[in-house]
Amino acid sequence: MRTILVTVGTSLLTNARRDLKKQELNIREIADYLRRTSPEKASAETNSLSRILQEGDKIIFLHSETHDGRFCAEALEQHYKDQGYLAEVCEISDLTYAESRFKMRGLRSLVATLIERIRRERQAQREVLINATGGFKAEIAYATVVGLLFDVPVYYIHEAFRDIIQMPPTPIGWDYSLIAEHEEFFEWLNEDLRRTADVEKRLRGLPRSEEIHLLLVEEEDFTFLSPTGEAFYEAYKTRLEQAQQTPLWLSEAAWRTYEKAAPDVKALFNRALRKLRMKELRISGSDRVQNSDCLVFPKGHRDERVFYFEENGKIYVCELTRHSDKSYERAIEHGVYRNRYGGWRQYY
How many CA atoms lie within 13 A of 269 on its CB side? Predict the structure, then answer.
């Protein structure tokens, strides 16, 4: 079973007005127009759907917060329901003709809605596709970004060749190290409205702050994640959650350190171990050190350091250490070699 997320523009209304030579049209007239006109000519949405629609598909029409956008989406919804498809409409808040709202809020809302719908439909065990032919030009760009980050194929009609183009899911190992390194900052930013002055104060002195700024946008003295930042952060959270199925084992020594740790230190180790399960972060965030045959995670300006190795699809943690109590330095001095460790127990 498949679900197609369709961005909706106003080409249906534009084409109907031109062909019927009438500016004011009601829903019945639009319905008649859709029945009598070939899908290739009726609208961008029907044209593209005619190339990809299959029996049993569910269609969700995502429309702007405008009268014309809502009118077209509801007409398309009814048209495809009449043909026996499951169909519904979904309004994208703040996606309007007002430039500032469109740029600052509308595109963020589009990204958030696409992600929420992808998650919901996947939970229902449905394959998800994005048809980004209709709507504002910028919608195609951001729908494509979401598709790439969430492994969803994106379709649109190429203007020059008038043929359907597919952007397939791309097996790219995205570099999530920036978000992982500053996860606490992104969580804080996303929890509530944050004034720009407070954001700048928190960013001051953080490593890679210039890169973080590329994922932010300011509006009326508040700072938010940009549409790209929203997509990237949500994709990171999704990958992190998926990675928690990776088996992770702690040695007797690591468990001893973990169980004796104060609550704040234990929380620090929990966060590090959660990230360690994510393959992309292990690849980008691990180092080799002297006097050890293990890898050390994470890189960067972090207090915690985890000595680990991988074997047969499992991750084995030999030592949990920190810079602040010098346990990291002591571990290197004594040597961390995997054959010295035993008493393995699976982590949560």
Answer: 24
